Amino acid sequence: MKNPKTAKVSSDELDSEEELSPEVHKKSLEKLKKIDPDFYSFLEENDENLLNFGEDSEDDASGGEEDDEEKLHKPGPLKGDSDESDFEDEDAKPIQGKVNLKLVAQWQAELQSEGKIKLPTLVTVIKAFNAAMLRVTSEDGTTQSEFKVEGSSVFNAVIQMCVLYLPGAIKKYLGMEQSGKDPQKCKHFIKIKGPLVSYLKDLLKLLSGVTSENILTVLLKHLHQMSIYVACFSRISKQSLKKLIMLWSSGEETVRVLAFLCILRITRNQQAALLDLVLKAMYITYVKNSKFVSPSTWPGINFMRRSLVEMFSLDLNASYQHVFLYIRQLAIHLRNAIVVQKVENRQAVYNWQFINSLHLWADLIGATSNKQQLQPLLYPLVMVITNTIKLVPTHQYYPLRFQCAEILINLSKETNTFIPVLPFLVEVLTTYDFNKKHKKVSMKPLDFSCVLRLAKSQLSENGFKDAVIERLYALLLEYTANEAHNIAFPDISLLAVLQIKQFLKTCTVSNYTKKLRQLMEKIEENSKFIERERAKVSFALNDEKMVAAWESNIKAKGTPLCTFFENWFKINNIQKRKKVSKNDEIAGELPMIKRPKIPDTNVLKTNAKQENAGPMVLFPSDSEDETGDFKITEEEDKPKSKEKKLKKKKKNKGKANIKKMEQEEEDVGDKQDIVQDFSVSDW
């Protein structure tokens, strides 16, 4: 602009712009740049279209006149600061602040400060947590957040900061440090409500994406601290409970416990709205996860059962409706099996889901025996259990019979109610021939704890009779010890004693007769003790208060049978612990006995010597000698002829029905447990 002459020349050249080609135009612009650089810079700032003549001309050739008009009226981007910068395009990405360890340390110090916690600090920390979660959960890697978290160290630092210090800071901000009041009643809750919802949603996402047991443990402890805020939002409560119930039923031991504590805390804070839903969901989950029982799954099933008892005990009035419906459903399955004598209907009852449901309701009624709400359900439950035993009274289902008898014994003990269990136990002694020789020899003893139905091949093993006698002995002793202080004990145990005596006369296996004779002597000793104490009584037997006082006095004083049972129980528990702890260690290294080589002619002499010296076999059988051959003595021959005569006399229609049931069960197959799923609609 300083040289008007050069400006005039350049303007003349520009006037003939339409006649010039793009190449000539570019050359003239380069010449102008050398002649007058100030004017060229002015054109760059104010008229870029003039300098980009070549590009515009190509667009004009292809676009036409309408495109020219649109381009002329399209405003260019604003480069300077303006009031219009407040109205940005909605699609534009927000400015992302990069989070580093120094910034995290600063936030952490603010959360831990002794003074007043500021709302912007909490909001900023929650946004940083959201940015960390977006880094993990976003599929395309782009995050729409004010912050950007990069690197595993920064990610871990943000998560650790929120887990350790955010709950205390929120509590301090709301003024809940000393008073345990509802967060929704706090003055500042409305301000933090939105960020809190966002944080809890992100926390549930993180919880769903983690598989490590250690990390799950940390997050569940954190969720337990945040449970009081989770309960403030019904939608988040239901989402968290759904995830927690899954962890409660299928996680590791520590994870299960922490998940249950979170469920309990959330439900108690919103008991009126959530209790019914939680009870139903937890029971359905319990039934689904109790389908198969093994030594590895027993602890988890027992934990679910105990925790369910805890949940149902929160409100017994609300629980009564659930328990009534579920026991009624069990009774309907049982009725169908009794009325329609088909294998499918019996399978709906004789499975672990049905038995574990009976276990649950017996535990619940026993645990709440001091309260009256659930006690009316005791009688129908006992009737369901006893008729379950009677449904198929065959040898294959002895394990199921023992499971039901154990439930009844515990129920009688906890509720202090007389339940006649002895007939179901003593019936085994009278219906099965324990003198019958086994066809198979098994080194592994049978364990009835995880079995409901025995295969036909197992019935012919040597361990079957041993296991039945052991289980019978334990249950008879436990039940009689439980009733040992009862004023009617001599009358209760009379028929059982007579049937045991009958068994001792007919059974020729010394190990079996030895155990049951010892038990019978203890029962008779206790009966004589009760009769002596009863002879001193001066009150009428129909005086219930005096009878109850007398029984409590006898129980406090102690009875011979109770003393014997306590000693046996301690020894039995020690043996069980040893079996559990050392069973796996010795499984591969069974000891072997080395015997000197003896000619065949001296086998009988050595056998006689070994019999005098004591048994040398590791697992002696009750009806075979050490050489492994079955031997029949004269003493065994004599009772057998009598037994044949007794069997002919005892044949009746009932026995024919039992044989029919056994045949139907054999047709199903030799599976150990028959399992049929309950449909969810049934419950």
Automatic annotation (TrEMBL):
Q: Does the keyword Transferase apply?
A: no
Q: Which keywords appear in this protein's UniProt record, sorted alphabetically?
A: Nucleus
Gene Ontology, cellular component aspect:
Noc1p-Noc2p complex; Noc2p-Noc3p complex; nucleolus; nucleoplasm
**GO molecular function annotation:** histone binding; transcription corepressor activity
Q: Where is the composition biased (Acidic residues)?
A: 12-21, 55-69
Q: Which InterPro entries match?
A: ARM-type_fold (IPR016024), Noc2 (IPR005343)
The annotated region (Disordered) lies at 1-28, 46-91, 607-683
Where is the protein localized?
A: Nucleus
The GO annotation for biological process reads:
negative regulation of transcription by RNA polymerase II; ribosomal large subunit biogenesis
Q: Where is the composition biased (Basic and acidic residues)?
A: 628-640
**What domain of life does the UniProt record list for this protein's source?**
Eukaryota
Ranges of compositional bias, category Basic residues:
641-658
Q: Does Phosphoprotein count among this protein's keywords?
A: no
A Pfam family matched in the record:
Noc2
Family under the similarity heading: Belongs to the NOC2 family.
Under which name does UniProt file this protein?
Nucleolar complex protein 2 homolog
Q: What species is given as this protein's source? A: Parnassius mnemosyne
